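README: folding subset

This subset contains proteins for which both the sequence and a predicted structure token string are available. Records are stored as plain text. Below is the entry for DNA-binding transcriptional regulator, LysR family (308 residues), shown exactly as it appears on disk.
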Amino acid sequence: MNTTAPKLGAIDLNLLVVFDAIMRDRSVTRAGQRLGLSQPAMSHALTRLRHMLKDELFVRSPNGMMPTPRAEQLATPIRIALDGLQESLEPVRFDPVEATATFRVAVDNYAAIVLVAPIAAHVSRIAPGVTLDFRPSGTLNVPELLDRSELHLAIGPSSAHGERFSLRRLLQDQFVVVHRKGHPAAKAREFSTEKLAALPQLEISSAQFGPEFVETGPGRPKSAPKPAMRAPFLSAAQILATSDLVSVLPLNVARNLTRSHHLVFRRLSRSPKPIEATMMWLRRLDNQPAHAWLRDVISNVTQGLHSS
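--- output ---
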């Protein structure tokens, strides 16, 4: 087997761009559409890649073009190299008024409900040519997509994913009890854990921001009461407005609901563990002008949403 690496001067950069596109799309056809190349041109480029790297690289399967172990090994270094080259060709400053960039952002349920609308509204005002592509993160492998530059950043709960990522906490939100106006239990200004446990509760089945109740006695943890009903978030406001069910939700989610429905919220005398929204991105993009602009915009927008 020939193990001699190809000389850098003999490598056609366009072939690496083709490799990266097929790696992203798992399809020669879709990769060609991404690059504006015909099917014969893509097939010819793939043949040259295989000859140059002495490996099949991609194998057809029912799920598309599956990368070989060698292709998997090459994917991240090639993506980093292409990103670095692209960044070196970009202006040293980012002008949002003139920019026509697209940013792909993964968001969890909390961020989708609370943060996406104000971020989108602000960006549309100050950067009319910028496109925001928000993607639900629930079924995504976020670290892998960040590594492959298929996402620019992600907003969700804080978690450790390795030193290659940077994190910035955007928001910490307390939980409150939401119920209809005129609810029999509405006289109190706040709810105790015991009072809450005695009420029929609605649990949001489509969201991952359920409260984690803290212990209520010496050495005796208190778990969340069993819900009387589970329903998707899209149904929650109407259910709460037309029943005696209550729901424990983050404060900023509750504020959104009470603006458009006959609902109110009350504080908990002992709040569950707060929910956090954290921004995560590749550390190597810390000083990239367009990326830094987006992060600052998101941070500034969320400043006005902090729980009071």
